[in-house]
Design goal:
The structure holds 2 protein chains of 2 kinds.
Chain A lengths: L6 H10 L9 H15 L34 H5 L5 E2 L2 E2 L9
Antiparallel strand pairs in A: 1-2
Helix pairs in contact in A: 1-2
Chain B lengths: L7 H10 L4 H19 L2 E4 L2 H16 L11 E5 L26 H8 L3 E6 L33 H9 L4 E6 L5 H7 L2 E4 L19 E6 L2 H11 L29 E5 L9 H16 L3 E5 L7 H16 L18 H12 L2 H14 L5 H24 L2 E5 L15 H6 L5 H6 L3 E9 L2 E9 L4 H15 L14
Parallel strand pairs in B: 2-3, 2-4, 7-8, 7-9
Antiparallel strand pairs in B: 1-3, 4-6, 5-6, 5-10, 9-11, 10-11
Helix pairs in contact in B: 2-3, 5-6, 9-11, 9-12
Classes of the chains: A mainly alpha, B alpha/beta.
């Protein structure tokens, strides 16, 4: 049986997950993920025709609450843990060019 | 019994009658921490001694004013490092949350503080609760008090070890695939995963939202019943918390099993479960029969696939939940990047440890275009089958009896190089999270001085029956006074 996931796919998945992965680790991740996926492939043997998907085992449907204003976090509290902030806002590297 | 070994219900009686003061109780636990914490390493963050004593003094003052005392008033407690608490940094044992001070409290923490519990600190864990040994922590090593050369289990290993070692009277953990019950089994204490929705998840840093529950640890079943009662109940801030009455769990503690039909699912005793664990479970079943239970073997044929379904569903949910850690709103930010996306990538790459990265990758893959139906869809269908099998079994039986873990506590580094082997230590606990059911683990014997865990699985929102069973077993087996020696391994 061939590998389910190769090194190229590991790089692709890391990019999707926005996760910097040292190039030296790629082959190890490929190997480990491949073993896990191979194990998980056992699920394919189970007949699940017409079986619905569970999203939540004991879901409480349609939870509503009165639409009332309640105290929340202050702006100051909300940005207090930010690695960089400016004037009560989160500060990030420039997103748009030429501004 | 030393004061630091008193259970919460005994402390409560002592405080109410004036036999002890909350300050004496706090000092006893603080002294115990001073003696053994350097060996055990249960805590990640301890509150300053003077703050702990000030909280205890406030309880004593309230008692002097004639105020009534809640069950955990004046009781020294610990919480896991993934529950927001304004008094402590909350880091999930991850570098990415280094120095994070939550601006709000988890509801479970608020409820304990509302009872005037004396918070000691927060405990070590596998990073973001992903692991079964507490070895995946950026915050250091926690050792099993029964054998310092072995792991305490995980992910709530710090909470379990703290309670076992007398460094806290009770503690809270969280259980996504066994993270309360498995360390409870390894450390010889009682640990309970409530029904999904019984305890608010508000303020619990999310791992897999459809599986996570906060659960109590104690040195006896009564403390676990009381602590569950203290934190359970509807919370408008968690839409999945059940708006149901919270029963008096202590009232459920009846010391017999008369009239209860129990099932022993054979799949939980399959290959992979060690002979000493099997023997201990068989002996426990005999004792349950003596106590009046009717016990039969039963089968849940899809359960052997639960681990596979779990290791698709939990990482999928985690990959989504952990997207919020990007170095913008909180936590660690990689330095020296001028590009927005590059900053995300590097902050996450530097901040997350190897197991968390592995699960994010696994989950991202399982949810990615072209693979979603094959992995995530299939796993959620298998989950439906598992839920149905539990429902059917529990329509005939009041509860199910299984081991909590397939073995006793294992050694450090034994499973760190093989993720699949590590995952397999959750084989007896994961199915219960998929079905959302309550389950409790308590000690049922020892093998070479290491505790073995017995698990009772109950019907949804019927924690009372499994607490009754656990209590009846505990009273009859009389293992609860056996305490760990906390001795270093030889050699």
């Amino acid at each position: 049986m061939g590998a389910t996931i190769g090194e190229e796919q590991v790089r692709h998945v890391a990019a999707l997950a926005r996760l910097a992965l040292p190039e030296a680790d790629v082959s190890r991740y490929a190997r480990e993920l491949d073993r896990i996926l191979e194990h998980v492939a056992r699920l394919q043997a189970i007949d699940t025709a017409d079986i619905p998907l569970t999203s939540n085992a004991l879901v409480v449907a349609g939870v509503l609450r009165p639409d009332e204003a309640r105290p929340g976090l202050s702006g100051e509290d909300a940005v207090r843990n930010a690695p960089a902030q400016h004037a009560g806002m989160y500060q990030v590297p420039r997103v748009l060019d030429g501004a | 019994m030393e004061l630091y070994e008193w259970p919460a219900h005994r402390i409560h009686r002592g405080l109410v009658t004036g036999e002890v003061s909350a300050r004496e109780v706090a000092l006893a636990t603080l002294d115990r921490i001073g003696q053994v914490e350097s060996s055990v390493g249960a805590y990640l963050h301890l509150r300053p001694r003077e703050d702990v004593l000030a909280d205890a003094d406030a309880v004593d003052a309230a008692l002097r004013r004639g105020e009534s005392l809640a069950a955990f008033g004046g009781v020294p407690v610990a919480i896991k490092d993934n529950m927001c608490c304004r008094l402590l940094p909350t880091t999930c044992a991850s570098r990415i949350l280094e120095g994070f001070h939550p601006p709000y409290d988890a509801t479970a923490v608020t409820r304990l503080q509302g009872q005037r519990a004396v918070l000691l600190g927060n405990t070590n864990m596998d990073e973001f609760a992903m692991g079964s040994s507490t070895e995946h922590s950026a915050g250091g090593v926690t050792r099993n008090p029964w054998d310092l050369g072995r792991v305490p289990g995980g992910s709530s290993g710090g909470s379990a070890a703290a309670v076992a070692a007398g460094e806290a009277v009770v503690a809270l953990g969280s259980d996504t695939g066994g993270s309360v019950r498995q360390p409870a089994a390894f450390c010889g204490v009682v640990g309970l995963k409530p029904t999904y929705g019984r305890v608010s998840r508000f303020g619990l840093v999310a791992f897999a939202s459809s599986l996570d529950q906060i659960g109590p640890f104690g040195r006896d079943v009564r403390d676990v019943a009381l602590l569950l009662g203290a934190v359970a109940g509807h919370d408008p801030a968690d839409a999945t918390s059940r708006p149901a009455e919270v029963p008096d769990f202590e009232a459920a503690l009846v010391p017999d099993c008369r009239g209860l039909r129990l099932g022993v699912p054979r799949e939980f005793l399959a290959a992979g479960v060690s002979p000493e664990v099997r023997a201990a479970i068989a002996a426990a079943v005999d004792l349950l029969v003596e106590l009046g239970a009717e016990v039969q073997e039963c089968s849940l044929p899809t359960v052997p696939y639960a681990l596979d379904a779990y290791y698709v569903i939990a990482p999928a949910e985690a990959s989504s939940n952990l997207a919020r850690f990007e170095g913008v709103r909180f936590g660690r930010r990689a330095q020296g990047t001028s590009d927005y996306v590059e900053m995300f990538r590097r902050s996450r790459g530097e901040g997350f440890g190897p197991e968390v990265r592995r699960r994010i990758m696994l989950g991202t893959y399982a949810l990615s275009a072209g693979y979603y139906d094959q992995y995530y869809g299939k796993a959620q269908q298998v989950r439906t089958l598992i839920c149905r099998e539990f429902e059917e079994a529990l329509s005939g039986y009041a509860a199910l009896v299984t081991p909590t873990a397939p073995s006793v506590a294992f050694g450090f580094a034994e499973k760190m190089d093989d993720p699949l082997q590590m995952y397999a230590s959750d084989v007896c606990t994961v199915p219960i999270n998929l079905a959302g059911l309550p389950a409790v683990s308590l000690p049922c014997g020892f093998s070479n001085g290491l505790p073995i865990g017995l698990q009772f699985i109950g019907r949804a929102f019927d924690e009372e029956t499994i607490l009754r069973l656990a209590y009846a077993y505990e009273q009859a087996a009389d293992l609860r006074h056996r305490r760990p020696p906390i001795v270093a391994p030889r050699g």
